[in-house]
Design brief:
425 residues; alpha+beta; 69% helix; elongated
Length: 425
């Protein structure tokens, strides 16, 4: 069923979106695997089950809490003044409280608000899972990049060590340079082993967390894309689609309906009943109706006041979430633009230091410099290149996170009815 649902979701997406979406970029996992991973997430499936629970609660609210009550009494009457002083008697009756007009509609609204809130919560779970997947993906890619850069450095130092060894054998270089070259190579090999281990740990964690993802042996490196500088547009898009804000608004709306329902409960529901009795062995037959109405007191007024306070608190929480989400959206856009600018600076520094290291090595080969200077220049070039690669990944992740929160990366606004129907399969 999950595969059929996945195919349906992909079919509902516009073809041009599938062809041009950033989710199909080579530095991200395939969209089909992402959707399968999101649908299989325990958090998302739990949120889907919560929709079913709220739908059941909505049916319960629509049905009401009042039920029919049957009363049956069997008794024996003893009268001393009569010859036959014992009579078998019984009494049977039914009764039920009736909801006053308006309460049923408020109960239905409460149920509908609960279902709507659960569906938005499922979207929030889907969004949070998407954020976690994106973050874990780039954590793994950073470890891959670190290992790849240390592998390059190891290969360069291994080549230099072979050159130094040959020169020492020919008597063109002191043995000290051989020790320096071997030490630098050993250090690079140690760093490479550690970086490779971290990459393997990150890959294993990613596979365990998202079994639907098939991790490639390597991810092609691509230059980060700049973010549109129009911050207001991004903030509006994020606020429009933010699930956390939607959850706060749904809770606020539900609390307001709950306050109206508590106020309506200050008018108690009457209980209507009918009873039939047989007295004195059938000499007397009784048929009657009963009506009972509780008297509203301080308890019901306190419940209504508490519900109003709860609704006011939910409204203030909604305002707080709105303010925080807006601030986070602005910070996210600023972070994405700053990350791209930082990557450009790091890239320029890496290019310059790489050329400097090449020139220093060439001078050493010509006998115009020392190996220590060459190794120092190569280490600076390596550090700059590694910083540039990591800065590029940071910039790409920040941009993708911005697209994700604006719901322009992966389809996290799926049909909740469809998912709620198939969630348990």
């Amino acid at each position: 069923m999950k595969r059929r649902l996945l195919a349906l979701l992909l079919a509902t997406l516009p073809l041009h979106a599938l062809a041009q979406s950033p989710a199909d970029a080579p530095d991200l996992p395939p969209k089909a695997q992402v959707l399968e991973a999101l649908l299989g997430s325990p958090m998302v499936r739990a949120a889907g089950s919560q929709i079913e629970a709220e739908e059941a609660r909505a049916r319960r609210l629509a049905a009401g809490t009042h039920e029919w009550t049957v009363r049956l009494t069997d008794q024996q009457r003893r009268v001393r003044a009569t010859p036959d002083g014992r009579y078998n008697e019984w009494n049977v009756g039914v009764e039920r409280a009736l909801r006053l007009p308006g309460k049923s509609e408020l109960d239905r609204q409460l149920g509908a608000a609960g279902v709507a809130g659960a569906r938005i919560s499922r979207g929030d779970a889907l969004h949070e899972t998407s954020r976690a997947l994106l973050g874990n993906w780039f954590d793994w890619r950073r470890e891959l990049a670190s290992a790849a850069q240390w592998r390059i450095q190891r290969d360069i130092l291994a080549r230099q060590a072979r050159v130094v060894k040959r020169r020492v054998e020919l008597g063109d270089a002191p043995r000290l340079e051989n020790l320096q070259a071997d030490a630098a190579l050993a250090q690079a090999e140690g760093q490479l082993a550690q970086a490779t281990g971290r990459a393997q740990v990150a890959a294993e964690s990613l596979r365990r967390m998202y079994p639907a993802l098939s991790l490639p042996a390597d991810v092609p490196e691509s230059a980060p894309v700049a973010v549109d500088a129009d911050a207001a547009m991004w903030i509006r898009a994020i606020l429009e689609h933010n699930h956390e804000l939607g959850v706060a608004r749904a809770e606020s709306a539900r609390a307001r309906i709950g306050a109206s329902r508590a106020d309506a409960e200050r008018r108690p529901d009457p209980t209507l009943g009918a009873h039939m009795a047989r007295d004195r062995d059938g000499e007397e037959r009784i048929l009657g109706l009963s009506l009972s109405v509780p008297l509203s007191g301080a308890g019901r007024r306190a419940d209504a006041d508490a519900a109003v306070a709860v609704a006011e608190a939910a409204s203030w929480r909604e305002a707080g979430v709105l303010r925080r989400v807006e601030a986070e959206a602005a910070a996210l856009h600023r972070r994405a633009t700053a990350a791209h600018t930082g990557w450009q600076s790091q890239q320029a520094a890496a290019d310059a230091l790489g050329k400097s290291a090449d020139l220093t090595e060439r001078a050493w080969q010509l006998g115009e410099g020392t190996l220590a200077e060459t190794l120092a220049a190569r280490r600076l070039a390596h550090d700059a290149r590694l910083a540039a690669r990591l800065a590029g990944l940071d910039a790409s992740e920040a941009r993708y996170r911005l697209l994700l929160d604006a719901h322009q990366l992966w389809p996290v606004d799926m049909d909740d009815d469809e998912h709620g129907e198939h969630n348990h399969h």
